Amino acid sequence: MLADARELPRETTETADLCIIGAGVAGVSIARQLIDGPARVLLLESGGLGFTKSLRSLPTVLSRHLRGEQSLAAGRNAGQFYYPLRFTRARTLGGSSRAWASHGLQAAPLDAIDFEERDGLPDHGWPFGRDKLEPYYELAQRECNLGPFEYDVDPWEAWGLGRPLPLDEDRVRSTMFQFGLDSAFNRQEAELAAASNVQLLLHATVTRIALDRHGRVDHLQCATLGGNHFKVRAGTFVLAAGAIETARLLLVSDDVQPGGIGNEHDLVGRYFMEHPDVEGGVLIPDPDLDPETFRLYLTQEIGQHLNAHAMLRLSDDLLRKEQLLNSVTRLRPTHRSALDEAVRSARTVRRSLHHGVPTAGLATHSLRAVRGAPTIVRHGSAKRSAPPDAYGLDIMAEQAPNPESRVRLGHRRDRLGMPTTVLDWRLGERDWASIRRTVELLGESLRQAGIGEVVPTLPESSPPPPVYGNWHHLGTTRMHRDPAHGVVDERCRVHGVANLYISGGSVLPTGGYANPTLTIAALALRLADHLR
To answer: Which domain covers residue 489, as residue numbers?
Structure first.
């Protein structure tokens, strides 16, 4: 059943057996698993049904939405340059799956090594291995409307997509990524509306989680932008509002537990992680190579609703030996003129303006681009008319868990009176050193295999190179068996609160390099099994 919180009687109390806060990938996945079951499920969504697909467009496109519930996502960046926070999450049925609906869900599972405690990497590892998540990954693959659960390159080679590069697999391996073009989670509207035991309540924003004197969640305080206030009571609650908003709600709810729910050890909001995205270098292929050599690494259509291509990663043994963070490298077709400083500066300016991300030295980059306009024009013309003669190495990297990288509450308040968030995203020397060393090792392997030469483009000194996140918000309520080191346990229950669970990227203790949606869906399905 669908309902609108703006039409509820004022000061009413809604009841359910299970209340899920947030109707994004995690919340919808859990609710769908409980359809036709014995539990009465209430799914709360701060936004409505409609939303602009292009969140990354200019603010004027979003002005209508920013006047509504989307404005409640506004906050301030205090650390590493980052996107305006109100653009990075979608308040609507389907959540942020609506933001990538136009270009598809990029998906891959975490690697087994991402779950391991590792020497030289503090705070790394999960309380269980990937094997515990494996059956849920396969279910999540179907939930996300992707292709076969195959991420090794061998089956894709057999299906005619091309051969992997002839690299020493003890050092560098190829791995597949899938792009689901029909994977938005807003398409479950009809199914949720028809469910007799599930109510989807739209335009319902939770402003506080209220505990009773025993430390259990007693009720939620909720509001609409129109001024309606109401409560929700349930036996069990799942907080699935995204890593930033989940931390915000816990921190705001400090009536019973000073500092916020689950924050006895000052961990809520800490360990915020993203997947830093940087250009690590340019590969100049051996001129005698057949252009088909790189076909597997170029996006190819697999049926009507699926694309796929391969990327490169260092082997687990090499990662352990070098004590490096995990990462994946995309091969982006380009031309050798991409190495020209003016062309590189123009790319930096374009990305900064397009995504609304300030960049260190942007004025210098802009001036260099203007002075090098003829070179930039020739480069653009070559990209349109000639086959690539080089490949940019774009790295999407794992970020080391860092307690100083965090979400906290600010002094400003939103239209519902809640303190807004401050994101202090921090990348450390470990992150940069790992990326630089990865480029070196990848270059050595490509050269030894006769593929070509890699020209590194990462500076060795500060300021750091332009870096972009991927809207992958992780880690602010990290999972750990010991409450002194984590906010939730291995079942995603908040330590010390018997009836409150958290679902979403915020529980990931380490994030690997893979886009997190598939892992978020798998964890949600695992939690749904537990709740059942």
So the answer is: 1-48+92-146+184-274+473-532
Euclidean distance between the first and the last CA atom of the chain, given in angstroms as a whole number: 20
Collapsing DSSP to helix, strand or coil, 148 comes out as: coil
Q: CA-CA distance, 244 to 259, in Å (whole number)?
A: 16
Tell whether the model's pLDDT for residue 467 goes beyond 90. no
Q: Report yes or no: 240 and 488 within 8 Å, Cβ to Cβ.
A: no
255 Cβ contact list (under 8 Å, min separation 6) = 208, 210, 211
Mean pLDDT in the chain? 91
Q: pLDDT band for position 61 (50/70/90)?
A: very low
- Residue 88 CA to residue 82 CA, distance in Å, equals 10
Alpha helices in 253-315 (DSSP H): none
Cα 33 to Cα 424: distance, rounded to the nearest angstrom = 36
Classify each residue of 48-62 as buried b or exposed e, where b means 16 or more C-beta atoms within 10 Å of its C-beta. beebbeebbeeeeeb
Measured between alpha carbons, how far is 476 from 248 in angstroms, rounded to an integer?
10
- Those residues with Cβ within 8 angstroms of residue 443's Cβ, 6 or more apart along the chain or in another chain: 281, 453, 454, 456
Closest to 78 measured CA to CA, from 469, 455, 421: 421
Query: How many other CB atoms sit within 10 Å of the CB of residue 177?
Result: 19
Neighbours of 360 (CB within 10 A): 14
Would you state the pLDDT for residue 67?
67
For residue 61, tell me if it sits in a domain: no
Long-range own/partner contacts, residues 377-382 (CB < 8 A, 24 or more apart)? 378/337, 379/335, 379/337, 379/338, 379/340, 379/343, 382/335, 382/337
Whether 335 maps to a domain, the answer reads no
Q: Give me the number of domains the chain comprises.
A: 1
Looking at residue 8, its pLDDT comes to 92
The answer on pLDDT for 131 being more than 80 is yes
Q: Cα–Cα–Cα angle for 511, 513, 514, nearest 5°?
A: 90
Average pLDDT (324-348) is 92
What tens digit of pLDDT does each residue of 187-225 get? 788 899 999 999 999 999 999 999 998 999 999 999 999
Tell whether 110 is covered by a domain: yes
What is the Cα–Cα distance from 275 to 213, expressed in whole angstroms?
40
Tokens of 303: 């049926």
- Give me the CATH number covering residue 529: 3.50.50.60
CB atoms within 10 A of CB 165: 21
Give CA separation, 385 vs 335, 379, 381, in Å: 11, 10, 6
Question: What CA–CA distances, in Å, run from 309 to 163, 177, 211?
Answer: 11, 6, 48
Residue 504 lies in a domain: yes
Mean pLDDT on 391-420 = 96
Cβ 240 vs Cβ 24: under 8 Å = yes
d(CA 505, CA 508): 6
